Amino acid sequence: MTSPAGILPDTAENRELSQNVRPTGWINPRPEGRYNLVVVGAGTAGLICAAGAAGLGARVALVERNLLGGDCLNYGCVPSKGVIRAARAVFETRNAGEFGILGSKDLGFDFGAAMERMRRLRADISRHDSAVRFRDELGVDVYIGEGRFVSRDCLEVAGEKISFKKAAICTGARAAVPPIPGLEESGYLTNETVFSLTELPRRLAVIGGGPIGCELAQCFARFGSRVTVVEIAPQILGREDRDAADVLQSAFLHEGIDLLLGVKILAVRQQGDDRVISLEREGRLVEIAVDAILVGVGRAPNLEGLGLEKAGVTHDSTGVKVSDTLQTSNPDIYAAGDICFPYKFTHTADALARILIANALFLGRQRTSALTIPWCTYTDPEIAHVGLYEQDAHAKGIGVTTLTVALQDVDRAVLDGETAGFARVHLRKGSDRILGATIVARHAGEMINEFSLAITSGLGLGAIAKTIHPYPTQAEVVKKLADMYNRTRLTLFVRRILAGWLKWQRG
C-alpha cells in the first residue's frame, strides 16, 4: 500500500493519512433520490457544511476529487504549524544562554525527525476528516471522484448522476504561481510540496513576503537554511500595520534572513545544481544562487472541471461570485470558503459554512458582511489583527483615536524575554467603541480574541477596563490599553472638579 499522489514521502504516517483522506478501494454509494445538499469539495468549508447539515437531519452527499481535509489538513495549517513549532524549539534552545543553559548554541538538529513528527501528528488529526468517519458516524454519503455539474440541479461523479435540492461549492484554492520566465523549467516548491521534503535545503529563496512566505522563511532559517525573501513590495506583510511589519522585519534581519524588497524578478535559470534568480533592484541587475525556491505569492481558485457554465454559476479569475448571503447566480447553489471569499482562512471557511447551512437549507438571511474576522500570521513574534486599520477608518470618514502599549511595558513579557511587539487599538473618536486592533507578540493569535469578542458583542474598551486580568500575563497588555483609554477621559476640567470635591471632603 502506498500513499496517493501528492502525499510524499511514502512513510507509515503518510499511508495512515492516505487511508483516512483518500482510502484505497473506496466504493462510492449508489445515488437514490434527491439530496437536500450536495457539497463539492471536502476542505474545511465542505466538511463543516456536510457534517452540520447531516447533523440537522439533511440527506447530504460530499464529493471530493483529491484528499478529504483539503489544504488545511494536508498542505496548510496543520503541517505548517507542526514544523513552525519544531523551528521555535530549535530557536529557543540555541538562544537559551541567558537562562543559564550551557552549550545551547552547539546543540544539533535533525530535520528528518522534525518532519516525521509533523507527519505523525497530521495523520492523527486526519481521523477527524476521514471518509469512514463521515460515512459511518455522521451519515454522509461520501463520493470520491471528480464532480461536474451537468445541469442546474444535477452533478455527475464517476459516471453517476446526483440530483440535489441545494448544492454548495467548496472547492477551495491552491498556491498561485507567478509567470516568471524559467521558473517552471527550474523547479519550485509551494505549500503543497514543501512539507514532503526529506532534506533541508542549504540555500532557500522564498518568493513572496506575505503570511505564507514569512512563516516558512523564518521556519527554514531557524532549521539552518540560508534564506532569502524576495518581495516586489517595499516591505513584508504589506497589508499589515506598518509598525507591526517593521517589528517582524527587524526580527528577520536579527535571525540572519536576507530581505530583497522592492525588486522585480526577471527570470530564473538552472545552472548546474543551482537555481539562479535574476532580479532588478534600484535599476541594477542582481543575481542570487539557491538550492531551492519556495513560491508563496497568494492563492488561485479551484474552478477547473466543475462545469459551472452548465450549472448557471457566474465566476471569474478570482473565484465563484456570491451574494452577501453566499448565494451564486443559480439560486439553488451556494459557495463557501476560499473559492468565493477574499479572506482565505480556515476559521473563515468554518464561519461561512455555518452561514451557508442556515441560508441554503432553512431560509436564513445571514450575511457575511456582519462577520468580525480576526487573523494571525504565525511568525515569531506573531501578528494578529481584527477589524479596521487606521487608514481604513480614515477612508470611511471615521474619526479615530489610536492607543498603543509596548510589550516592554508589560511585566510578564519582560520576565519571558519577549518584549518585541505591542498592542494597538483604534477607537471611534470621542468614544470607547473598538474599530480594530493589532497585537504583535509571541502568542498574539491567542490574545486577539478578547478584541474580537468585544467587537462582535458591541462592547467598548471600557468593558475591558472593568475586567480583571490575571497578573502577570502578556494578555495584560490589553488591560493596559483600556486603562490608557480611561486616563484620556480624565481631562483638566474633570481633574479640577474632582480636586474640588476632595478638598471639600477634607473639610
Number of alpha- plus pi-helical segments: 18
CATH C-level name of the largest domain: Alpha Beta
Protein structure class: alpha/beta
Please give the number of β-strands: 23
Number of domains: 3
Distance between the termini: 90 Å
Biggest sheet overview: 7 strands, mixed
CATH superfamily of the largest domain: FAD/NAD(P)-binding domain
Task: Please tell me about this protein's structure.
The structure is a single chain. The protein is α/β, with parallel strands linked by helices. It folds into three domains: 234 residues, FAD/NAD(P)-binding domain (3-Layer(bba) Sandwich), CATH 3.50.50; 112 residues, FAD/NAD(P)-binding domain (3-Layer(bba) Sandwich); 108 residues, 2-Layer Sandwich (Enolase-like, domain 1), CATH 3.30.390. Helix content is 34%, strand content 24%. It has 18 helices and 23 strands. The strands form six sheets. Strands 1, 2, 3, 4, 5, 6 and 18 form a seven-stranded mixed β-sheet that branches. The protein has a five-stranded antiparallel β-sheet with strand order 19-20-23-22-21, with helices on both faces. α1 runs parallel beside α5, α4 runs antiparallel to α5 and α4 packs across α8. The protein is globular, with a radius of gyration of 25 Å.
Defining key terms:
alpha/beta, 34% helix, 507 residues, 3 domains, FAD/NAD(P)-binding domain, 18 helices, globular
